[in-house]
């Protein structure tokens, strides 16, 4: 069996193609149904958002499943199989599991660390689960995926360090005025940077956002989304006196905010500071404003330090999340190995209990004078002997199997105890002879872990 993911995202495909392949409603249900009825796909989860469409699958044959999924998506979307194959990626084994975890953590998103994707991943799994497309393998895998995603949100600040100029401007303004709550912000320009700045300001709790633009209709459309007030550029001079923070991002020739406007706005403010953030190139705000009392003017060069700090901190937080992903992959691999050792452990316990039961029956026959109380005491102590003898070997074979990533140790363990319950692949069989002496010396003794443990074959 193999775990794979076949998909496309903003990394691999343009937005017009992603839109055509995106799955929702009946299309999503149709794909799940077709996957569920496929002989080559054993389990599956389909994730489809505005920026990605991905099929996670547990399969018998990677090549056959890949071809089946491409054909299915081509038939569903109307996009040719050739076009799809040029823009879709295939990840297998450990890379597929790690990818799912990185997606859930927001590491693979356009805005690194965004939290919406975790809910979308949870919904995708729940939909597949309810459709009967998941089994023990994917139920456990996606439990681990969602756990790692939740850890990334709660234990790191990876999503709290955007590196856009607009966010850096808002962050700097907040530091200067001691927080944004209760403040009035004026954003000049409703282009990409201006709109983003207005949204950041609104999201961080300013009392009021004023959005000025040459085209009032464009300002009104954005303002309606965030609860701001729209006005034309002609109204900027009149509202400057009300603003605590001004973010200007028109990039028009000449100064949109003149020193004379600001000087007039200072009248009656009683020393209340005015923060001017010029994120336009060419600059919107007259540099002479910096000389006015209680006015703090910053341009894009001044913001570079804030952006650099955010880049460094985001990289540090992302590294922490990558460590969580690696730990999540390891935990899932260990679980896979444990599941294959379970039949051996059950068989061993059953054999131990059978021996103890035979001994008890023999004692009762040979010592008929034993009271019921005596029999209970003997039963308790003989079972204790069995449990004590088996406890350490069972723990060791679990740990050795996890550390090695295959069932060679478990197979030899079964042979030592006369249990025929573990099947291994050819690679494990070949490695068993090499490990024989090491296993014999350690299987009933202390386990020593050295080096990096190997992954379960399903993840290789």
From TrEMBL:
Single GO biological process annotation from the record = protoporphyrinogen IX biosynthetic process from glutamate
Residues annotated for NADP(+) binding in this entry:
189-194
Taxonomic superkingdom = Bacteria
The residues forming the signal peptide are: none
Q: Which CDD domains match?
A: NAD_bind_Glutamyl_tRNA_reduct (cd05213)
EC primary class: oxidoreductase
Q: What is this protein called?
A: Glutamyl-tRNA reductase
- Lineage of the species this protein comes from: Bacteria, Bacillati, Bacillota, Bacilli, Bacillales
